[in-house]
Design brief:
By secondary structure, the chain is of the alpha+beta class. The chain has one domain: Transferase(Phosphotransferase) domain 1 (Transferase(Phosphotransferase), domain 1), CATH 1.10.510.10. Strand 2 and strand 3 form a beta hairpin. Helix 7 packs across helix 9 and helix 9 packs antiparallel against helix 10.
Length: 322
């Protein structure tokens, strides 16, 4: 593992400038940094050791990351470094770059890029849940924990509260549930509702978070937005708008705005709307209240790949295949 000095990290982050922050939580903050040499642009996670529980969170993350390896999970180079060329998904969705004077239009993800990213995240979850010797529940899936590299490939990060499922539970129980010794079970807005009632950690909980993340990606509305009050949630907001009001709830950047529409452009527009509706239906199915009624990660991947094929065939000029 490469050895880095504190001075090199301080220099890479412009002395830990607030403008370099790409994510933060109770136990840590993540900075975008530029290091000399082969590592280049990276994400630097700084743990707040003065906060009770931060050390335990660090050890939990180390335990998880030493046993997993996947192209859509963050790759650790040394004690506190991981690949990150473009920042977190949260920065891209909500234009946090506006405070740094950057052009917000240049930080917009098109339709195919967003579909690619949700597939990346789904592939990572499928690996964690179904392809390890013992399944792993991430417990805190949200946009600020999805890092994007230079090709806008999504990498799931922050395993500070992740939990391995005991082998006997994974093999013998169809519910894939395990009790948690940690009091924290995710972030408000993304955490499964059953966690608030004391239910055990489960892969179903990750699926709820994934569904909310997917809905946020295509509406650009955070589940903690001020509009969601008096029992209204992002899930309900989207579900009640389906399918007639899709154009009113999706991110406007995903739709064409043509002064002189042609029959061909109208057909393309309608096909794009159908794809967006299909995507939102997946998000709704993943984030229903009852855990066992949620769509499985394998089903979600299959559906999203089919939608991606349609988008590519449309040849939409707004999409950039990778």
């Amino acid at each position: 593992m490469p050895k880095l000095s504190y001075w090199s990290i301080q220099k890479a982050t412009n002395e830990f400038s607030k403008s370099n922050i790409i994510g933060f939580g109770k136990f840590s903050a993540v900075y975008k940094g530029i290091l000399d040499g082969s590592l280049g642009i990276v994400a630097i996670k700084v743990f707040k050791l003065q906060v009770r529980g931060a050390s335990k969170s660090f050890m939990v993350e180390c335990e998880a990351l030493r046993k997993i390896r996947h192209r859509n999970l963050v790759k650790v180079f040394t004690t506190c470094c991981s690949i990150d060329h473009e920042g977190s998904l949260d920065n891209w969705l909500h234009n946090h770059s506006k405070d740094t004077g950057e052009n917000n239009d240049s930080k917009s993800l098109n339709l195919l890029q967003r579909v690619n990213i949700v597939i990346d995240v789904a592939n990572a979850l499928d690996y964690l849940h179904n392809h390890l010797e013992t399944g792993l529940v991430h417990c805190d899936l949200k946009p600020s924990n999805i890092l994007l590299d230079g090709d806008l490939v999504g990498h799931v990060g922050d395993f500070g509260i992740a939990k391995f499922l005991p082998t006997e539970v994974t093999l013998a129980s169809s519910s894939n549930q395990v009790s948690s010794s940690l009091g924290i079970k995710g972030t408000f807005g993304y955490a499964a509702p059953e966690y608030g009632m004391g239910s055990d950690l489960s892969t179903f909980g990750d699926m709820y978070s994934y569904g909310i993340l997917l809905l946020e990606m295509f509406t650009s509305k955070s589940p903690t937005s001020d509009i969601f009050t008096n029992g209204l949630t992002l899930h309900n907001y989207v579900r009640m708008s389906m399918p007639e009001q899709v154009t009113e709830i999706v991110d406007p950047k995903l739709l064409h705005k043509e002064a002189n529409a042609t029959p061909q452009s109208l057909v393309l527009h309608n096909q794009i709307i159908e794809c967006l509706a299909s995507i939102l239906k997946i998000g709704i199915a993943c984030s229903v209240d009852l855990p066992r009624d949620r769509m499985s990660i394998g089903h979600a991947v299959k559906e999203l790949l089919s939608i991606k094929d349609i988008i590519v065939e449309l040849g939409d000029i707004r999409t950039i295949p990778r």
